[in-house]
Write a structure and sequence with these properties.
It is a single chain. Strands 1-2-3-4-5-7-6 form a 7-stranded mixed β-sheet, with helices on both faces. The protein has a domain of 116 residues: 3-Layer(aba) Sandwich (Aminopeptidase), CATH 3.40.630. The protein has 4 helices and 7 strands. Strand 6 and strand 7 form a beta hairpin. It is α+β, with helices and mostly antiparallel strands and 176 residues long. Helix 1 packs across helix 2. It binds coenzyme A. Coenzyme A binds next to strand 4, helix 3, strand 5 and helix 4.
Length: 176
C-alpha cells in the first residue's frame, strides 16, 4: 500500500537522492549537478512558505518512492492563479501508477490553494511525462525546440496545461 502525504523538512535528503538520479541520467531536469539535501530543504521551504503543496509517496516499509510539488508558474503577480508541477518517481519504481497517484493528489491540493491553471514544463519532451500528464487531462500547449543541451543532445521542452477547479469560467474570489 502506497501512502501519499505532505512532505516535511526531514524528507529532504531522501528526495535529493531520488532527484539526483534523474539529474545525472535523465533529461526531465535541465540541471546537471544534483543539489544536496540542504539545498533541497531550502527549495522545499520556498514552496511551503506561501502554502503551496509538496507531497511524498512512501511504500509499506516507509521508503520514499517519489515526490511532487507545485509552485507559482512565474513570480510576477498576474501569474498568481497559475502553478507549475514537478514530479519525480524513484528510478526503479517508474511505470507502476505512482506518478498518476501523486499527480492526481497534487492537482487536488492545488485546487484547494486556489490555483486555476496548472502548467507542465516537460524537459526533453519525455514520453512518460507527456503520457502521465495527458492521462490526467493536460493538453499540449506548445513546444520549444532545442532549447536545452545535455548528454550530448539538443533537447526540446514541451508545455502542457490543465485547468484547475472552475478554470477561467469564473473570476477568482478576490481581485487586488
Ligand atoms: C514521468 C514520471 C513522473 C511518470 O510517473 P510513473 O509512475 O512512471 O508513471 P505511471 O506509471 O503513473 O503512468 C502514468 C501514465 O503514463 C504512461 N506511461 C508511463 N511510462 C511511460 C513510458 N515510458 N512511455 C509511455 N507512456 C508511459 C502510463 O501508461 C500511464 O498512462 P495510462 O494511465 O493512460 O495508462 C516518472 O516516470 C519519472 O519520474 N520520470 C523521470 C522524471 C520526469 O520525467 N519527471 C517529470 C517532470 S515534468
Amino acid at each position: 500500500m502506497v501512502s501519499i502525504s505532505p512532505a516535511s523538512p526531514t524528507d529532504a535528503a531522501e528526495m535529493a537522492e531520488i532527484y539526483a538520479h534523474h539529474v545525472l541520467h535523465g533529461t526531465a531536469s535541465f540541471e546537471t549537478a544534483p543539489p544536496d539535501g540542504a539545498e533541497m530543504a531550502r527549495r522545499m521551504a520556498k514552496v511551503l512558505a506561501p502554502g503551496w503543496p509538496w507531497l511524498v509517496a512512501r511504500g509499506p516499509d516507509g521508503a520514499m518512492l517519489g515526490y511532487a510539488y507545485a509552485s507559482q508558474f512565474r513570480d510576477r503577480a498576474a501569474y498568481r492563479f497559475t502553478c507549475e508541477d514537478s514530479i519525480y518517481i524513484r528510478h526503479d519504481c517508474r511505470g507502476q501508477g505512482l506518478g498518476k497517484a501523486l499527480l492526481a493528489a497534487l492537482i487536488e491540493a492545488c485546487e484547494g490553494c486556489g490555483f486555476r491553471q496548472m502548467i507542465a514544463v516537460i524537459g526533453g519532451a519525455g514520453p512518460a511525462s507527456i503520457a502521465l500528464h495527458a492521462a490526467l487531462g493536460f493538453t499540449h500547449a506548445g513546444t520549444m525546440r532545442s532549447i536545452g543541451r545535455k548528454h550530448g543532445q539538443w533537447l526540446d521542452t514541451v508545455y502542457m496545461q490543465r485547468p484547475l477547479g472552475a478554470g477561467d469560467s469564473t473570476p477568482p474570489g478576490e481581485e487586488p
